[in-house]
Specification:
Layout lengths: L2 H54 L11 H12 L3 H7 L9 E2 L7 E2 L2 E8 L4 H14 L4 E3 L2 E4 L10 E4 L4 E3 L4 E6 L1 E6 L2 E4 L5 H10 L15 E4 L3 E4 L13 H8 L5 H20 L5 H4 L2 H4 L12
Parallel strand pairs: 3-8
Antiparallel strand pairs: 1-12, 2-3, 3-11, 4-7, 5-6, 9-10, 11-12
Length: 308
């Protein structure tokens, strides 16, 4: 074989190797490009789904709310927790009592100390806080028109089971109560649909007391906001809504009637703290409630509270 032939073969072999490498490189580039496209498409789908959810109340689909006799049973169970159950829980270990404030004129309605609650149905922290609020207030009076609800499905702690004060009425010879739910749990455009409107007095109270120095700067403007006759304030929830995740209304109602349930003990203990505060506002009435072990456990928390 001549040198020219050998050079020709070497040249052809080198060209073939170069072509094979180029082909392989092109294949790898096509695979990489395909992978990138897949990722981009997947991301786009996620964004579209998220945006769709944000605008239409998307998220995990909740089960249907209990209705009829089942709903009535839940509300009855929560508004009639036995004194023996609450006494068995007494102070508990997971309580955040309302913060006492001093030097403020008493907030009253019809000559009775007024408790003002401001929240919203979409709010998971409102959802968790309503349980102890209802249990505590039910020891001093009766509710009519309470309904079952859930927090929003597209917020943190989605679909937290709860009650709603919207459309309800509270009757008591000792206390007055106003429950305001400013928005629903359903989206309307970029926000939740409005529900109850604050009165000028309620708006004034909210602006004054849901801000420093009455609440920490980090908590200013938070909901739920509860004003206990201008003598104590609570913002946010006294326990985490995470404890209610995955629970049905029936399960929560059963838990608050079971002093061995950790969830029930947490809710009932916070209800006991609120009850002790309410007893200070009512000057110890009714006596059977305000002299109970459940209230005595928080005797020192509200020693300086008095409404005359």
């Amino acid at each position: 074989m001549s040198k020219r032939q050998r050079d020709s073969r070497d040249y052809a072999r080198r060209m073939r190797m170069i072509q094979e490498r180029a082909t392989a490189r092109q294949g790898r580039m096509r695979q990489a490009t395909t992978a990138i496209v897949v990722v981009i498409v997947a991301f786009a789908v996620m964004v579209v789904a998220k945006l769709g959810g944000a605008g239409s109340g998307g998220g995990p689909a909740p089960q249907a709310l209990p209705s009829g006799a089942a709903a009535t049973a839940v509300i009855t169970a929560v508004t009639t927790v036995p004194a023996a159950t609450l006494n068995a829980v007494d102070g508990g270990n997971n309580t955040v009592p309302p913060k006492v404030i001093t030097g403020q004129p008493a907030l009253t309605q019809d000559g009775k100390p007024l408790v003002l609650y401001v929240g919203a149905e979409y709010c998971p922290f409102c959802a968790s806080q309503r349980w102890p609020v209802v249990i505590a207030l039910s020891r001093f009076g009766t509710f009519e028109g309470l309904s079952l609800s859930r927090s929003a499905s597209d917020d943190v702690y989605p679909n937290t089971p709860t009650l709603s004060f919207h459309g309800s009425k509270y009757t008591s010879q000792y206390l007055a109560f106003q429950g305001v739910e400013t928005a629903t749990n359903k989206r309307k455009g970029g926000s939740y649909a409005p529900l109850d409107t604050l009165t000028p007095q309620q708006q004034q109270i909210l602006q004054k007391y849901n801000a420093p120095p009455y609440v920490d700067a980090a908590s200013a403007g938070a909901i739920p906001f509860i004003d206990f006759a201008n003598q104590a304030i609570a913002t946010g929830s006294s326990y985490s809504p995470q404890l209610l995740q995955g629970k049905t209304h029936e399960q929560v109602a059963a838990a608050v009637n079971d002093p061995q349930s950790q969830l029930g003990r947490t809710i009932d203990a916070n209800a006991n703290a609120m009850t002790a505060l309410l007893c200070k506002l009512t000057n110890g009435q009714p006596g059977d409630v305000c002299t109970s072990p459940a209230v005595s456990a928080f005797q020192g928390e509200f020693a300086n509270v008095s409404v005359k």
